């Protein structure tokens, strides 16, 4: 339905969805729809309901594909019951459109946490990684591949009794064994900054590519940038990912070996998700410790407390005020459902005329233009100085 039709139906706070879920407030939204905080009037508990993007105006086949994707997300998430995964409670139909009813988990994502801390300590990230890997290992055992593991989908409770608890979310593009759709072949789906090399080359995502994506996400929150860096040219980034040549980590410390194992370019040489969990956990508990000590527990800092970045009382800065090449605002994306073979090869690294590096949708300022041209100006100055030195040398040589 259109925006006008939604308004006419009164979908908003206090709207009773599915005859059971009373909407309270909108928690967030994007291209795939909106997420609402709602009250389950039958069980008297708060839930999060995902209102999928409207199918009004779509042709019948595309509308049906959108509904099937939503139902697939609900089915896949419902197969996974784990302490470190957002629980799926129900799929409700409203006006013929499916709404997903999920566990309400007051939290902030690791992507939001990076707006506070820029980068997180390696030992804290190892705990997070082990817990997420445990949930994904269970998903893999159920035949489900997440396909979009990234900092934005890793949540940490920011208040109340579950403060510091970690959960993986958003199985919206996940696939279970046996799932087949017409758009599965040769297309890019997910976030290129966290792709595995084989997925960037056009292969289907697998359990091994989930391992790589988790390694990329953990690398990012420790180093402050993704393994392949940040590039405003998303196609150049995609082809760099396909080569599998990551920047050497500098801050990962005791987690380095585990992360490099997860970021092995050859998927056959990567650990399974369960092995990755064990390797990450051993970094925290030591060779004699028990892995169960950190599973199901909140994330703790070296001081033995839940870190400050996880607390709701620690505000998240306005991302619009961050530098253009910051970790979060600078992450590029590529349009979903774009075959890699149809994307142009990136041009050489030298661009002419120089282009300012700005966030998508932003207009370059005078300062941006000056920064872009600065290397050219420096080169011209050096050339002039060298020429002047050569002329002076010839003058001295010609003098009697």
Automatic annotation (TrEMBL):
* Domain Protein kinase residues, every copy: 21-285
Q: Name one GO molecular function term.
A: protein serine/threonine kinase activity
Q: Which UniProt keywords apply?
A: ATP-binding, Kinase, Membrane, Nucleotide-binding, Serine/threonine-protein kinase, Transferase, Transmembrane, Transmembrane helix
Query: Region annotation Disordered: residue ranges?
Result: 334-360
According to the UniProt entry, what is the EC number of this protein? 2.7.11.1
Q: Which PROSITE patterns match?
A: PROTEIN_KINASE_ATP, PROTEIN_KINASE_DOM, PROTEIN_KINASE_ST
Originating species = Rhodococcus triatomae
Q: Where are the transmembrane segments?
A: 370-397
- The highest taxon in the source lineage is Bacteria
The name under which this protein is listed is: non-specific serine/threonine protein kinase
- Residues the entry annotates as binding ATP: 50
Top enzyme class, one word, equals transferase
Q: InterPro entries of this UniProt entry?
A: Kinase-like_dom_sf, Prot_kinase_dom, Protein_kinase_ATP_BS, Ser/Thr_kinase_AS
């Amino acid at each position: 339905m259109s925006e006008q039709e939604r308004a006419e139906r009164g979908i908003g706070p206090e709207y009773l969805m599915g005859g059971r879920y009373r909407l309270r407030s909108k928690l967030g939204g994007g291209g795939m729809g909106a997420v609402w905080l709602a009250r389950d009037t039958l069980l008297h508990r708060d839930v999060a309901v995902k209102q999928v993007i409207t199918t009004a105006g779509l042709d019948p086949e595309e509308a049906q594909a959108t509904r099937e994707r939503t139902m697939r997300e609900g089915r896949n998430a419902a197969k996974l019951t784990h302490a470190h995964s957002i629980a799926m409670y129900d799929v409700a139909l409203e006006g013929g459109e499916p709404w997903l009813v999920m566990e309400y988990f007051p939290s902030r994502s690791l992507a939001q946490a990076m707006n506070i801390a820029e980068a997180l300590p390696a030992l804290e990230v190892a705990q997070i990684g082990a817990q997420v890997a445990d949930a994904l290992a269970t998903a893999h055992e159920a035949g489900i591949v997440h396909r979009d593991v990234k900092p934005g989908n890793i949540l940490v409770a920011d208040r109340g009794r579950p403060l510091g608890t970690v959960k993986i979310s958003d199985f919206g593009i996940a696939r279970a064994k046996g799932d087949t759709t017409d758009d599965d072949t040769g297309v890019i789906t997910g976030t290129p900054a966290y792709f595995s090399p084989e997925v960037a080359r056009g292969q289907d995502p697998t359990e091994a590519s989930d391992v790589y994506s988790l390694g990329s996400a953990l690398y990012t929150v420790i180093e402050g940038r993704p393994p392949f860096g940040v590039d405003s040219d998303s196609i150049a980034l995609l082809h760099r990912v396909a080569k599998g040549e990551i920047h050497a980590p500098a801050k990962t410390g005791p987690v380095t070996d585990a992360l490099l194992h997860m970021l092995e370019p050859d998927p056959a040489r990567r650990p399974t998700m369960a092995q990755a969990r064990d390797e990450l956990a051993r970094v925290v508990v030591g060779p004699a410790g028990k892995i169960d000590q950190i599973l199901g527990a909140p994330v703790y800092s070296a001081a033995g407390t839940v870190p400050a970045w996880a607390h709701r009382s620690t505000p998240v800065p306005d991302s619009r005020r961050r530098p253009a090449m910051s970790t979060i605002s600078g992450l590029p994306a590529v349009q979903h459902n774009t075959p890699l073979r149809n994307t142009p090869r990136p041009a050489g690294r030298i661009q002419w005329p120089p282009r300012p590096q700005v966030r998508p949708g932003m207009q370059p300022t005078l300062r941006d233009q000056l920064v872009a041209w600065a290397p050219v100006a420096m080169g011209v100055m050096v050339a002039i100085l060298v020429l002047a030195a050569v002329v002076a040398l010839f003058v001295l040589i010609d003098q009697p």
